[in-house]
């Protein structure tokens, strides 16, 4: 059985009537260049070493990233016992800091480094088991 000759014409008319309804759900505008993403990374400690220097512990740290000038602080611990605090002022020109703590006896030492009240890194030197 053959379809009548008017069948392709009816299908074409139906497709023309439905075309506006089918394209109405599509986006009419695509931005060619997306908006730039602005990312501000917090200050971070890129290098931190804790080592023994005779009867002292020596901590050296470097802060990278964009930050407002402020104090880089260190809290010293031997196991769970807090030994003391120290801080040094850093700005864009001065990004390196060195801290020294008198510690003649071997121990399980930790130094917690913070900047602006935010803890950035902890470094450890285990001369004995904690």
TrEMBL record:
This is Ig-like domain-containing protein. It comes from the Bacteria. It comes from Deinococcus aerius. The lineage of its organism: Bacteria, Thermotogati, Deinococcota, Deinococci, Deinococcales.
